[in-house]
Design a protein that fits this description.
CATH topology of the largest domain: ABC transporter involved in vitamin B12 uptake, BtuC
CATH class of the largest domain: Mainly Alpha
Number of domains: 2
Radius of gyration: 23 Å
Distance between the termini: 11 Å
CATH architecture of the largest domain: Orthogonal Bundle
Largest sheet: 4 strands, antiparallel
Strand content: 5-15%
Number of helices: 12
Number of strands: 13
Order of helices and strands: HEEEEEEEEEEEHHHHEEHHHHHHH
């Protein structure tokens, strides 16, 4: 059985990778990934915590970024044209300015939608001025904290997929689109009611995700199960549904990257040896509490007991008096709600766009496979492991390679433990 599980895990990864390739080919030209990026340096020293803003030819803001502990920053864009990239001089270290003939603004002409390097020429107004660089252990700790943050968001998005697989056996490729749905619904609610506290907007986006999960289960997958459609066919349906959801979001919201007005620019807050924007502390705290709540629900409530029972043996659960259909519906609602919250939080850390689900699809499948198919706790552990490995690796490698490192970690762990970290070996006989 372990061999079967390993083969199933490998099949899932191959399918996910193939879908990503197909989607990338099918995407319209204006939706290609482009980014203005660079590393801010003063001599050999990097300059962290500096705010950089990009505007287009009309003066409209394209995005804002803050240099990280290694001086790196990145602002996505989706259209060709001329961009003005400007440093907020008030965020520069004291005594640091620009070389003679240089200014805080650099003009970039993007004739293609791809990565464009942007360089600023910093100089010290006072030769005695130096930038204090954190020691190696502190920068490593900062990367570890970033990895935990990303891992918590991946775990939130992955738990629902793992639970749905556990209770129905369905590999739901449309689950990642819940991430984009939650982020874009939060953007829509903020646009409509910008005066509301952002936590209320997050709650509204989560409820919208729960409603969508209810509609998908009640309107599509339950009727198909009643018609005795097998799980392979249902998986194909979920692939088609992912296409429909993705391009519906494109039609409704457009291809331009967006950002929330709330928490757009924040100063870093020191907490012991590491420093993060205030929103990151909030995201990690709420995500951790939600994952703990999921664990308590599974272990301490009748609904959680029913979910675990249905995942183990649906016919026996039904004969024991458990309403299997109602339990499956609860899993769909809870899983979609969690994915929507994860998407809204992810939008706080980067831009919001219609392709967000596609970009995290492989990571979500990797987290579920690594943790153990069908186990909520496995998805949590797998999400944390994938997030930590991907972000921590950027200390040595280029940011574009971080997902590759995460998948290499996945392969090595599955070679040692094919059923996943928390998966259970099964055998017949």
């Amino acid at each position: 059985m372990a061999v079967v599980r390993a083969a199933g895990a490998t099949l899932l990864l191959v399918l996910a990778a193939s879908l990503l390739a197909v989607f990338a080919t099918a995407a319209p030209a204006e939706a290609q990934d482009g980014a203005l990026k660079g590393t801010l340096r003063l001599g050999r020293d990097v300059v962290p915590d500096v705010v950089i803003t990009a505007t287009d030819a009309s003066g409209s803001e394209v995005g804002t970024a803050t240099t990280d502990a290694d001086g790196k920053w990145e602002i996505p864009f989706s259209e060709t044209g001329t961009y003005q990239v400007t440093i907020d001089t008030s965020t520069l270290p004291e005594g640091v300015g620009f070389e003679e003939g240089r200014s805080e603004t650099v003009e970039i002409v993007a004739d293609e939608v791809r990565a464009k390097a942007v360089g600023f020429k910093l100089a010290s107004a006072d030769v005695s001025t130096t930038i204090e660089i954190d020691p190696l252990w502190q920068r490593l700790l900062s990367r570890a904290v970033d990895g935990i943050k990303v891992g918590l968001l991946i775990a939130l998005a992955s738990v629902g997929l793992s639970l749905i697989y556990g209770v129905t056996g369905l590999v739901n490729f449309a689950h990642s689109e819940m991430v984009a749905f939650g982020a874009l619904m939060a953007f829509a609610f903020e646009s409509l009611w910008g005066g509301l506290p952002f936590w209320i907007i997050i709650v509204l986006a989560a409820l919208a995700g729960g409603v969508l999960g209810f509609v998908l289960e009640g309107g599509i997958f339950r009727p198909l199960r009643k018609r005795k459609m097998n799980n392979i066919s249902l998986m194909i349906v979920s692939i088609g549904l992912a296409f429909v959801m993705r391009y519906t979001l494109l039609i409704l919201f457009g291809s331009d990257p967006k950002s929330y007005e709330h928490h757009r620019v924040q100063k870093a807050i020191d907490f012991g040896p590491f420093s993060l924007p205030g929103k990151d502390y909030w995201i990690m705290g709420v995500s951790l509490l939600m994952l703990i709540a999921v664990g308590l629900l599974l272990q301490r409530t009748k609904l959680g007991t029913a979910m675990r029972a249905v995942a183990d043996n649906p016919p026996l659960s039904q004969s024991s008096g458990i309403n299997v259909d109602r339990t499956i519906m609860a899993v769909w609602i809870a899983g979609s709600l969690l994915a929507s919250v994860g998407g809204a939080f992810l939008g706080l850390t980067q831009v919001v766009e219609w392709q967000m689900g596609e970009k995290v699809l492989l990571l979500i499948f990797a987290a579920v496979t690594l943790g153990g198919l069908g186990t909520a706790y496995g998805a949590m552990v797998g999400g944390l492991a994938i997030g930590f490995a991907s972000e921590f690796s950027t200390f040595w490698l280029d940011n574009d390679l971080k997902f590759l490192i995460a998948l290499i970690v996945l392969i090595f762990i599955l070679l040692y433990k094919p059923q996943g970290i928390l998966g259970v070996r099964e055998r017949f006989g």
